[in-house]
């Protein structure tokens, strides 16, 4: 992927765009002052100048730069800061008498701020010239916004931009797994002050901790994402832009910030740093609920036996039942297998003599389930991780969660399912499909718990009462494909989240379902299902909030979109 070429084509501000932005700024009814907070401590003088100049070069003129120097020992740094403050009244500088580290220094910068909005910036990073305009435009478009974040990339010593992070819209579960807010992060000044500013002792994750505390006081709709690269993060040996190992204390601070967030919000969960981010474990009740595992099958004795055996041998969750739903099997081996399973403890076999679609079978089985949580399974899955069911049940029981999906691997250990992304391959595709094991995907997203618009019904958990309230899977309009996607979208429509976790892992063996897709009848049915999805969900299929308009809909690997699906694709587009 040639990011430099992508930047030239879609992320370069033209002279005409600058003029258009200036006209839009002049036409704004409100032109909020944005206070850029910059704590400094012995930065490279050249990088410090570049950082300050990137603020001074902003097309949006209504800003102030609030710099708090944390007792730098470099006389050159002090001279640079004094010089800028003397010749540009928009630049305010306070020199702290003693070093207090970044939280204390950031609070000193916060004390200088007079604007209603704060933008957080490190002393060696860069803002593109349209950054603050894009923020102001977001504020004007969404008057109730309280927190704003943007996409970001990295920049090296030579000025080369690379490794962009094109982020999803607000995603509380991913935010609890990594600081996706980070750069460029913008907060309402009164909100930041109301929660107490930056906390001393959380250095390295002080900005994440601040946003966690702010997030607790606002509605999700008041957190907005600008899908543009508005921040260039400098990579050097002492920067966490390259690796968290540069500041190991930051990982410890991140754990503390998350765990204290859970304590404040009365969520029974704990966070642990796992390299690419944080793993959050949600506690199960002292008396874990019964979970009903629903396995649909037809003439697949070997697959079914392997599926059931793996559940029995691997699963450590203490309370579950298995309901095998047979879809008109007529083969001798399948019938014998069903007969045997029906004799085993804790397994019920439900026979449907006439073949039905999988949605019909699952809906019927859920009505018979005794569990508080139901898990829909294909007969071609094989459990890998002993705690898979505890993971899925603990997430399914969380308030606001409607469905939970698992990480599914092909037998050769390439990824089958990292969640569902809308619009990829027309209706929907699987995130990171065919990614080799051992990798964590785009910006860690194949290895972290997160909300997605949909998850696969091959392994999907939901509370039984919720499943029933939603009417189950649509067996009328979606007889071949996408019933799981439609179910998750209806959950989202009802204000519920679908979660994907990499910590529930199963192998998905080759399914005859795909062979059936080769038949003309199945292809026709698939086209009808796709047409229904487009009619029912329309533009939502092209605008997945868990994805990004700068990423492609052509393939499932999170590569760049050529062109992006933001208006006209360039910074000039909204100008």
CATH class of the largest domain: Alpha Beta
* CATH architecture descriptor name of the largest domain: Alpha-Beta Complex
Class computed from helices, strands and strand pairing: alpha/beta
SS summary, helix count:
18
Could you give the count of β-strands? 22
As residue ranges, the low-confidence spans are: none
In the residues, how many domains can be counted? 2
| CATH topology annotation of the largest domain | Spore Coat Polysaccharide Biosynthesis Protein SpsA, Chain A
Q: Roughly what percent helix?
A: 25-40%
The main β sheet shows up as:
10 strands, mixed
Describe the 3D structure:
- It contains 18 helices and 22 strands.
- It is α/β, with parallel strands linked by helices and 575 residues long.
- It folds into two domains: 3-243, Spore Coat Polysaccharide Biosynthesis Protein SpsA, Chain A (Alpha-Beta Complex); 291-542, Spore Coat Polysaccharide Biosynthesis Protein SpsA, Chain A.
- The strands form four sheets. Strands 11, 12, 13, 14, 15, 16, 17, 20, 21 and 22 form a ten-stranded mixed sheet that branches. Strands 1, 2, 3, 4, 5, 6, 7 and 8 form an eight-stranded mixed sheet that branches. Strands 9-10 form a two-stranded antiparallel ribbon.
- The longest helix is centred in the last third of the chain and has 18 residues, at 520-537.
- It is elongated and about 90 Å long.
- The two termini are 28 Å apart.
- The model has no long low-confidence stretch (mean pLDDT 94).
